[in-house]
Write a structure and sequence with these properties.
This protein is 73% helix and 0% strand. The protein is elongated. The N and C termini lie far apart (99 Å). The chain has helices at 3-12, 15-30, 32-43, 46-52, 58-84, 92-99. The chain is mainly α.
């Protein structure tokens, strides 16, 4: 018996491994989407545990930085929407961005 065959025999003694292998083989026959679903299902919560154990407070600091980034993006969006409405009319700056042309009146002070 070859080395590879011995290895396969040992793995097939574990019913859980055999069940997982069968799920992968069946999903491979169904297509890439089904295979991806099976891999996600078999991955379990290990990715979350890895994120938590990377270092002290890494999960909470990542969440905090995500919140700050979200608020910064929201402020950026609000300010830019406001600035586009400060022209002669509400849509004049937006029209100028789309057409590439803006007419400016001569103002003498």
């Amino acid at each position: 018996m070859s080395e590879r065959a011995k290895h396969q025999v040992n793995l097939s003694m574990n019913p859980r491994i055999e069940r997982d292998r069968e799920m992968i083989v069946n999903a491979r026959a169904e297509g890439k989407g089904a295979l991806a679903k099976v891999f996600v299902r078999l991955s379990g919560p290990g990715w979350l545990q890895s994120a938590i154990t990377l270092g002290g407070g890494s999960l909470s600091s990542s969440m905090y930085l995500g919140m700050l980034g979200g608020f910064a993006f929201l402020a950026f969006l609000i300010i830019h929407v406001y600035l586009t409405t400060t022209g002669h009319t509400v849509g004049s700056h937006i029209k100028a961005m789309i057409t590439g042309w803006e007419s400016i009146e001569n103002q003498h002070h």
